[in-house]
Write a structure and sequence with these properties.
Layout (H helix, E strand, L loop, with lengths): L12 E10 L3 H13 L4 E4 L6 H9 L5 E6 L33 H6 L4 H17 L4 E6 L3 H5 L2 H10 L3 E2 L16 H10 L5 E5 L20 H14 L1 H8 L3 E3 L2 H6 L19
Parallel strand pairs: 1-2, 1-6, 1-7, 2-3, 3-4, 4-5
Length: about 280
Amino acid sequence: MTKHPKSELIQPVIISFRADDAGLCNAANAGILDCIHSGLLRNVSLMTIPGGFFEAAEMLGKHPDVEVGLHVTLTCEWAGVNWKTLLPQERVSSLVDADGHLYPDASALLANEPEEQEFIAEMAAQLARARAAGLKVRYLDEHMAIGYCLGFRDAVRRFAESEGLIYADDLPFAKGLLDDEVDPTRFIEKLATYRGDPAIQVLHPSRVPVNGEHYLLCGRPDSSIASRRNAERLLIMDPRLASAYHAGRFVSVSISELHSGFAPPAQGDFTQVVSPGKP
């Protein structure tokens, strides 16, 4: 093992890669599975409302080393896609429109004056569905920061605590690592010199859907979302990132480890691992 002078020893970068939107559709599930196979993805946040839920639950059940979180979902921002709550419309009427569908964003939902107790009841139903599928849910987070936007974050935090879950949105998030272009070279270079606190890096990895329209946002008819999500999938699968990881130059941790204050031994600098074009 290479010895480094004491002055060169640094605390390894600690990152908790979290893939959101499992269960969204087949393309999202397949992309997340690709990232699981890379060995770097330790956390997956699961939606229980969309049609891809059962496929995602079965997939995650085969990977118990990956931590599962509930991705609380109370909006549907996708054009041409309509989701309903798990609870009957009459029990959560403040959360849905006249047809029983989720609103496209928090602003529209706020205009309907959502009730906190209905929010909590639907959240509990979503958690129950994940557990009924045999999954051990370890943490909870919010799709589109919905609890925060509605002013219900304290209620969400109390609910998570009552269910023995980590409220992941209280943990630190990495800043400045991932740019709009999702360029692997720049990401790995930034990771090499990152000196921030241990943090979550949120990703939305996905393969390109056969029907790309699934990733069309309401009011934004272009394919940029599908392209970006595929780029995030390829980022985690990049062999240079795997090389840095296997060399012990950064640590990929679970949400539970991040929450508990995981602290690995110091390592040497790893800028030599991530030079552009190096496989």
